[in-house]
Amino acid sequence: MELSADQLSSTLSAARNPNVNHVSKTNSHKKSSVKNIRGCCSGRESIDRFLEWLKSHDQKLLRDANDTVADVVVAADGTGMFTSISDAIRPAPDYNIKIYIIYVKKGVYKEDGIDATVVSGNRNYVDGWTTYRSATFSRDITIENTAGPTKQQVVAFMSESERTVIYRCAFRGYQDTLYARDQRQFFRECKIMGTVDFIFGDGTVVFQACEVLARQALPGQLNTITAQGRKYLTAEDILLYLPTFHLCNISVEPGVTTMTYLGHLSKEYSRTIIMKSYISGAIQPEGWLPWNASAFALDTMYYGEYMNNGPGAKLGGRVTWPGYHGITNPVQANALTVAKFIDGDTWLSST
């Protein structure tokens, strides 16, 4: 399923009530066979400070989760109306202006919270599913694709909608874990785990205060955290619309021996910025990988690093491509913060 945050078509987790494990609020605005669902979360303090751009009526629904009556209930043990979230979404009316609320009870999802509530699937490329249709689902929830590294592209989460907001969620997979396809997106305090190109797409994305962990890959593979997919460039793209990692922790899972890089040059205008983040010593000194060891796009891509720290943040051994930049200008770096980069001050409150 594809997640969006354009309206209040959303997936929400309520942590205030210990008897409520996950509440997903969704306005089922469908485009043909595709249903856009976006994830965010509750908890009184978080709601008061988070997603200020929501309509006042929608904010009230988030704050008063205890008083909210669900349209459908999902329970893995059979005590609800459905045993899977996918089945619960299908009855949602097309182009409905009323919020459609899904309450997901305990079952596979043990308890509320990141690493405790898990939605998983195992669709993958090898078994006949395309990257676009691979398994997915979103606050204080873990989204996982369990197909494993031998199944090649195993997307856990794909977002293609304007104003996507994901808060304190985890995304687990191997190759192609998180597909930020396009539009403005904001990930805050999330965990993202994978191996090959596991954060990819062409979205205008900020990952803020996130933990990014490479996993053990297959023999002969290299870990590449990002594979930004910009194919075309406009005049305003020079320092705009770049995926930005801000205040993140970039490392590997314990015991990983796979050589790990910050990114992989996959398209002609690939662009990524890492700023004020911790980079562990597990990251190779070169930092970045070219396309198939060729000179493809080395002068048209834009990779930048600014004021990072940690043993892997040293720039002395970095690639010397024309398109690589060790950013030293704070004015240039400020243009890539949430408020400036994705106009976050117009639709996001402080988290």
From TrEMBL:
GO terms for molecular function: pectinesterase activity. Its main location: secreted. The keyword Transmembrane does not apply. It is found in: Secreted. Pathway: Glycan metabolism; pectin degradation; 2-dehydro-3-deoxy-D-gluconate from pectin: step 1/5. Residues 71-345 form the Pectinesterase catalytic domain. This is Pectinesterase. The lineage of its organism: Eukaryota, Viridiplantae, Streptophyta, Embryophyta, Tracheophyta.
